[in-house]
Amino acid sequence: MAKGAVMLLVLFMALAAFSEAAQIRHGSRALARGHRRAADPDAPTHLHFYFHDTVSGASPSAVRLAGPADPSSRTFFGMVNVMDDPLTEGPEPGSAAVGRAQGLYMATDQAELGFLQAMNLVLTSGPYNGSSLAVLGRNCPLADVREMPVIGGTGAFRFARGYAQARTHWLDLKTGDATVEYHVYVMH
Q1: Where does the signal sequence lie (predicted)?
Q2: Alpha-carbon span 28 to 47, nearest angstrom
Q3: 57 vs 179: CA distance, rounded Å
Q4: Three-class SS of residue 60?
Q5: Whose C-alpha in 109, 137, 160, 164 is 20 to 30 A from the C-alpha of 43?
Q6: Of 159, 156, 169, 84, which is closest to residue 120 (Cα–Cα)?
Q7: 62: exposed, middle or buried (C-beta count within 10 Å: 0-12, 13-18, 19+)?
Q8: For residues 49 and 84, what is the distance between their CA atoms, to the nearest angstrom?
C-alpha cells in the first residue's frame, strides 16, 4: 500500500512538473501577446507617461542616502538617491496615476552631471496593471533626450527588452525637483 502511494505521488509530481513546463513554454508568450495593443504581434508596445521626482519639501518622493564626495562639485559625484516617484498620464502632478518609479540613481560621472539609474516602472492602472519594467542605464538629466535600456519585466512584460527615452519637461534648479516625460518602447 505504501509503495503504491509513493509511486502515485511520484507520478503526480512528474505530471505537475510536465504541465508547468508546458505552460511556461506556451502560456507565458500567449499571455504577453494577449495584453499587447498593437495588431502586429512583433510591434513594440509604446508607453507614455510623466515621472515626478520631488526631492524638496515635507514629503519628498526621492531621498538622498549619501551626499557627493565634494559638496561643491557641479556633478554631485558620489551622491546616491532612492526614489518612489509617481508616474502620471499628464505633466501635472494631479494627473491620473499610472504607476510608480521605484529604485535609485547615483551621480557617477566626474566630468558632467550623469547618473546611473536603476529603477522598476511599476504599473498600477490600465491594461498593464500589476506588471513592471526594469530600466538600468545612464541618465544625464541636462541632455535634451536620454535613452536607457529596458532589461526585463514582470507580468505582461516577462522577457521584455527595449528602451526608454526621457525628456525633461520641467526642472527647478534651486530644489532639484523635476518632471520628466517618458516614452518607453518594449518587445515582450
Answers
A1: 1-21
A2: 21
A3: 15
A4: coil
A5: 137
A6: 84
A7: buried
A8: 15
Task: Note the pLDDT tens digit of each residue in 39-76.
Answer: 677 789 999 999 999 999 999 999 999 999 999 999 99
CA distance 145 to 103: 20
Helix (H) or strand (E) holding 9: helix 2-22
C-alpha cell at 166: 526621457
Q: What percent of the chain has pLDDT over 90?
A: 76
> Rounded to whole angstroms, how far apart are CA atoms 183 and 22?
34
Q: Specify the pTM.
A: 0.78
User: Using the 8-state DSSP alphabet, how is residue 96 labeled?
Assistant: P
- Give the per-residue pLDDT at 31: 31
Q: SS3 of 141, please?
A: coil
Query: Could you identify the residue written with the cell 507617461?
Result: 49
In sequence order, the 6+-apart residues with CB closer than 8 A to the CB of 15 are: none
Q: List the one residue out of 79, 84, 75, 144 whose CA is nearest residue 110.
A: 75
Helix (H), strand (E) at residue 31 = helix 28-35
Residue in 150, 164, 120, 153 with CA at minimum distance from that of residue 35: 153
C-alpha separations of 38 from 34, 43, 53 in Å = 10, 6, 31
Q: What is the DSSP-derived secondary structure letter of residue 78?
A: T
